[in-house]
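SAMPLE LOG
Freezer: B-3
Tube label: C17
Construct: single chain, 448 aa
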Amino acid sequence: MSAEVSLPRAGTQSATGSVVALAAPIGAAALGVTTAYSPKTAVEALFAVALFVLALFRLDLAVAFFILLTFPEHLPGSLGVGATMAKPAGAMIAVAWLVTAVARRGDVPLLPRERPALFWAVVAFVALAALSSLWAKDPATTFADLGRLVQVIVLMLAAYTAAAGRTGYRIVLGAYLVASALTSVYSVATGGYGANGRLGVLFDPNYFAASLIPAILVALFLLLSPRPRRIRLFAGAICAVDVAALLLTQSRGGLVGFAVALVAAVFFAGSLRPRIVAIVLVCAAAAVGYFGFAGPSHITSASSSGRSDEWRIAARMAENHPFNGVGLGNFGIVEPSYATQGIDLQHVRYIVTYRQRAHNTYLEVAAEMGIAGLLLLVGIFAGAVRSGARGLSAGELEMWARGLCAGALGMLAAYAFISAQWEKQLWLVLALLAVSAASRQRAPRAGR
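STRUCTURE (predicted):
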């Protein structure tokens, strides 16, 4: 991680201020007209404008607020906020990031300039996804998924700029940790359990479990490293509530990802290796005892709940369309035709009636975008993790980076059980990994 950046030059600050000065009277007039017809819409518009102004001057705080608001968006949505404001909030941050990047030009840390190989791999992945609409059976579904993909990638670009300095990195990654803990506490406290006892009424437990893994590992590294007492208490609380929530989701993919993250933590531990090894051994012993004798039936059962059928179909689909796939988002459209192709399926009704996702990020991308899409996605993941590994000697942020690398590998392992290529948490973690690289020369960060 680079040294803390300096304040921007007066010229760049005035350029941003000019944008606000020009937009203010127009926005005020539009807000007045909107208030007369819909006070609720006016309040939402005022919130969006306030977030836009905040993003112009402190992009790190705006991104942090967005993470808190939408982790996951269904949680604050249950309070009548997140589901409504997620898209406009994201749009305001994206526009503010674009305005800042144009107004300040060379002063703003940008992924295309600092990590060009990673950036162009992302661009190629999106371009291939868009191109797949030409041969997709249902192009409308392709464009719908493409829209989701573009949104999260723009968020990745903005998050990279926001987290480019020491302060921004701590704020953005710290917001991820706090948001995970708040979601866990709220869900457990309100009894968000399904009929099978799994924590996950407000969200899909498998996606939530995967998103908790990076937060747990970063908090674990902060807890074990020499830190002020308040930081270790903060990290310990997050680690405790997130681990409890992860276990309550009863997500097999989440538990596998967590196990991978703990093993990866041993390799990324550095000076903390003896402590990390001890924790891994304790967790392994506890897991053997708990799941061997008293584990929930959902976890210990050999049943795959139809997931293995989806994997078989995705593998066959990728084999039949190795170069171009069936088109982004079209796995569910095409999969019913595979029910009659001699594949040994245990739950045919899931295939024909529900048309589920492949429940495996890598197999689904291979089925929908061919081998080129899969290689690009794996290359993006590998490039981001490699950048994160290069930031392991980043001074006071070293333990943040070490925990993030281990947690990211665990999350990517958990994605072998869910289709998550458009998840916000994935692209936020990729941005933070990319910004962790120990580049010592960096332009001043946006909003500082």
